[in-house]
Amino acid sequence: MLTLFIAIVIVLSLALFFIFIQPLVPLLLLKLKLGDKAIIMFYPIFGFIGIFMRSIKTNQDVMKSINVALRNNPRAKIILSNFLNKPCIMFAGTEYLKQSYQDHDDFEKLDPFMLPSFMQKGLAMSEGENWKRQRKFLAPAFTFEKLKSRLPMMNQVVEDIAEKDDKTNLNDFMSRITGEIIVKSFFGKLGEGFQLEGKEAWVALTKLTGEISLIMMDNLYAFVKSLLFGVKTWTILPTKQEKDVVRRVENVRIKLNELILNRVEQLKDSPVQDQDKMVFLDLYVTEYLKQKKQNEQQIDLEEILHQFITLFFAGTDSTATICGTCLYYLAKYPEIQSEILEEVNEVIGNADINEDNLNKLIKVNALIQEVLRLRNPAFVTLFRTVKRDKQVQDIKLKKGWALVQMHNANSILDSHFDNATEFNYKRWLSKDTIIKNDNGYIYIPLTAGPRNCIGYHMALMEAKIIIALLIRKYKILLNPAVQQIRFGIKFFQCVEPDNCVLFEKRI
């Protein structure tokens, strides 16, 4: 009996050390050093993710707890939290954000899906020379000159899906539009009729990536397992749900590989001569075949597959949630909706949106910028781990610590924006200085520095088209049956519940 008692005490002591003492002591020492420049927000096991989830539960707003803490302590630049048993440093101050973005090679992204052979070779997760090569290769394809050829396709996708969808689920409706645009941008005509799991490809992929994210957030067992075992988590004592996800991911890989190999065979015999007409897959396969011929293989078929999943994940949900949130605010503020509808009618009338009128949608753009300022779906970056001991300003980060860059933290401070917590899209129409005390890292909608979002201009283009065409066709209304709106997480920050707005066809 005594032996059992001693064993229990030892186990409890180890758990106490692992869960509380190991992460908390370094945080307390940092707090003593930094004083009111730092705020401690410790949450056993779940850490900063627990802070977000608790904020949703108590405030109906994922960022409310942190935003209130920062506004109540204007000198605060850092949130001191944890990630399981590791200290987690959350940068809010612009000088910390600037250095950490610029010195990105000192930090390693943590794979949000923890799935082997899924998106590790894509642009988002690549590091070092591989990342530089991919970025250099893809960057020309994301210029306005290249993207403008997709405008007719984007118009058509919005019109078609708006007609077919029942529009009862805002986030699904938006994801269907943005997902189809990504599939057609990557695969072109090859993607027409492309199905996965008996569904349209973008529907199946959106559902799959969403389920993977929710497993990690909603299931304590899966969450802790992922922290301990990384990509091996899916094969170590997997639940029935995890086994199902692994099976479905493998099926997706098989189907995507078939599509890619099909295009390889087509372009071997009939290469596309006009680069301006190439979709992303054509660019990649053409380069793949060229390198193979020259015996200088850098791109392989696995990278092409990972790149599609990366672009789909990054381009579908983020743009969809931007658009969904814009539509919510249009429903909430009918006067803004009337002003923007007036602009849409004046600029495009009954015509499609094209390269000549796209940038004349000034108020539509202002609406999007205000949503990105106040309700950015990517409110923090993918969190990182510190590769080696690193000095950032006055903080010595230790190898293995977690790092979160809260690039939206300054957007809610009155020191940088007038009436910062007020939704006011007209601030972006002003000719006066909009951002106060700006060092270039105050308003950074989709990250900054060398690893800024390569698809930002495409996302902005899509969002303008989606909002303009939908507001022209439908009156956007708040659903009177919904009593409580919340800003939660489906990987990205989004407005919920999914039936929060209604679409009434204009006469």
From TrEMBL:
Cited Gene3D superfamilies: Cytochrome P450
SUPFAM superfamilies to which the protein is assigned, alphabetical: Cytochrome P450
CDD domains: CYP5011A1-like
Transmembrane segments: 6-29, 38-56
Keywords: Heme, Iron, Membrane, Metal-binding, Monooxygenase, Oxidoreductase, Transmembrane, Transmembrane helix
Cofactor(s) named in the record: heme
Pfam families tied to this protein: p450 (PF00067)
GO molecular function, one term: iron ion binding
Chain residues that bind heme: C453
Family statement: Belongs to the cytochrome P450 family.
Classification via PANTHER family: BIFUNCTIONAL ALBAFLAVENONE MONOOXYGENASE_TERPENE SYNTHASE (PTHR24291:SF50), CYTOCHROME P450 FAMILY 4 (PTHR24291)
Protein name: Cytochrome P450
